[in-house]
Amino acid sequence: MNSENDKQNRVLMGVCPKPHGIKGGVQFIPLNEQSDLLTEGQTFFYKRKDAEAWEKGVLTIAEISAGPKWYLQFEEIKNRTDAERMTPFELYADRSMFPEIDEDQIYLADLLKMNVHLVDTKKQYGKVIDVYNNGFQEILVIQGQEGNIELPFVEDFFPEIDEEQQILYMVKPEWIEGD
Q1: Do the Cβ atoms of 91 and 15 come closer than 8 Å?
Q2: Measured between alpha carbons, how far is 11 from 145 in angstroms, rounded to an integer?
Q3: Alpha-carbon span 11 to 96, nearest angstrom
Q4: Going by C-beta distance under 8 Å and a sequence separation of 6 or more, which residues neighbour residue 68?
Q5: Do 14 and 84 belong to one domain?
Q6: Distance from first CA to last CA of the chain, Å, rounded?
Q7: Domain for residue 101, yes or no?
């Protein structure tokens, strides 16, 4: 179960940074607050921040408290001591849990680690290293040779995606210097 292919089929859903309460709950920072996968009874893989190896997904959500702050209770974490031992950890979903999407759509997780090439020259500019929502839109963090830049994931900046070649084409903003 720990094959490289299994790891590639896991998608980060969020992070559980610390315990919450005395019954073993944990604080949860979701990457996508609208995800239909974050439901009671759903089982996820987890990886402790200090662990090299994956640990099988034996964490099943027993209770969710969503709001400005999210808290999760897992069936397998019985008390605060267990939660303190586990945290911090990352929560992953198996890719097979995701619903099919239209051909012209893409999951944001699929953009991570994509190479970024310039539209006009087709030269590689960098790589997508992070995606986040600033409250208004999705923002891509692109690591280039001159450092990181952050751009909204909109068609004006990213008019084309070649999923097969794992290339995201970017229109370079005028404020970025160099080739």
Answers
A1: yes
A2: 27
A3: 10
A4: none
A5: yes
A6: 44
A7: no
Length of the chain, in residues = 179
In our burial notation (b when 16+ CB lie closer than 10 A, e otherwise), range 155-172 reads eebbeebeeeeebbbbeb
- One domain, residues 75 and 131: no
Q: Are residues 87 and 114 in the same domain?
A: no
- Check: CB of residue 96 under 8 Å from CB of residue 148: no
Bridge-partner residues for 135, per DSSP? Answer: none
- Domain match, 56 and 122 both: no
What does the alpha-carbon distance between residue 32 and residue 37 come to, in Å, rounded to a whole number?
10
Residue 56 sits in the same domain as residue 86: yes
Question: What would the pLDDT profile of 76-114 be if each residue is shown by its tens digit?
Answer: 999 999 999 989 999 989 888 888 888 888 888 888 889
CA–CA–CA angle 117, 137, 112 (5° rounding): 40
- Whole-number average pLDDT of the chain: 86
Our count of domains for the chain comes to: 2
CB 78 within 8 A of CB 86: no
15 and 83 in one domain?
A: yes
Report residues of the chain scoring pLDDT below 50: 1-5
Give phi and psi for 47, each to the nearest 5: -140, 120
